Amino acid sequence: MVGRNKDFTGPKNTRMKIKLTAKKDVFNYCKPYVIAEIGSNHNGDIELAKKLIRLAKEAGADCVKFQSWSKETIFSNKVYQSNYFLADDYRNRSDYTLEAIVEAYSVSENELLELKNLADEIGIDCSSTPFSKKEVDFLVNEMKTPFIKVASMDLNNYPFLDYIAKKNLPIVISTGLSSLDEIERAIQTIESAGNNQICILHCISIYPPDDNQVNLRNIQTLQSLYPYPIGFSDHTIGTSIPLASVALGACLIEKHFTLDKNMEGWDHKVSADFNELKGICSQSARISDALGSTRITAQENQEKKDAFRRSIVTTRSISIGEIIGIGDIDFKRPGEGLSPGEMKYVVGKAAKRDLEKDSIIYLEDI
User: Fold this and answer.
1) What is the tens place of the pLDDT at every residue in 34-74?
2) Which residue range(s) make up the domain with 359?
3) Which residue(s) pair with 323 in the sheet?
4) pLDDT recorded at residue 79
5) Same domain, 157 and 115
6) d(CA 306, CA 337)
7) What's the pLDDT band for 9 if we cut at 50, 70, 90?
8) Residue 53 CB partners (closer than 8 Å, separation 6+)
9) What does pTM read for this prediction?
10) Is the link from the previous residue into 11 a cis peptide, with omega within 30 of 0?
11) 287 shares its domain with 307
12) What is the CA radius of gyration of the chain?
């Protein structure tokens, strides 16, 4: 690797910010920006897409995201002939082909504008992942997307990255399928185009990965290597893993979102439903708040401290002028008198007044 720190020493540059949207800066350990990845989970139904937008907003997501591709921009004829990417739901059905599904599930430009208008109306960000230069131009010039999301499959598509970077919008880039050298070249490509508005997402492009394949500590590795904020694009089942990423400082969580995990299609089974997305949004904010500061200070007020801590107390009645011995004291709540750590000021000293058994000893008493 060129120009990067290869030695892992823990998270660095944890407060570098990028303005992802007009209202949201993202940085490591910030309250995570949550993207509900609708992708193609609308199954080509514009009304279902609208319902998912409304539910994502209700669940507390910051953004909904689609995928901008057509039959011509996503696969070659070889793939269509092999049906390699045909969803499992359709593999035993002779009436479905990959080409037909792709055509049915794609979102037209007019439909995407309609979805963006709804998102604007209800107050949730809306973006999409482009699969060609034409789709990039549409997202930037017509849809006015606040940022461009680059799929893992295009991390090594360096000419495409250069084209996107020159649009001078924030770029959110997933790192699935990629080696560290490929990630480095991708980031250098974007930087060389004059764009340093980058958010890097740790990602495993397996649907779903086993837990031991997720390697969440890669988030810390990326934090140590790059000044840019690091997030997490999740393909696991459930909410535990994306929430764990927040404790490692993930600034953004991208999670597939569906109305029903049992629907036909590519991603429904690894997607969050409404309750799961709501949990990710609320609990990630709570975790972020709980992480707080690295500076150790007592949060309890003095009244609380006094109530919970101990004071030096007498174990017997002591007369004025009598010398107090080690066996004459004990330590009990509350902590409003001399503390156990101040025992040296008590043992071997004379009492200035009569002290009853189990009396708290104050400085003026000795």
Assistant:
1) 999 999 999 999 999 999 999 999 999 999 999 998 878 88
2) 302-365
3) 350
4) 79
5) yes
6) 9
7) very low
8) 38, 64, 115, 118, 119, 122, 124, 126
9) 0.89
10) no
11) no
12) 30
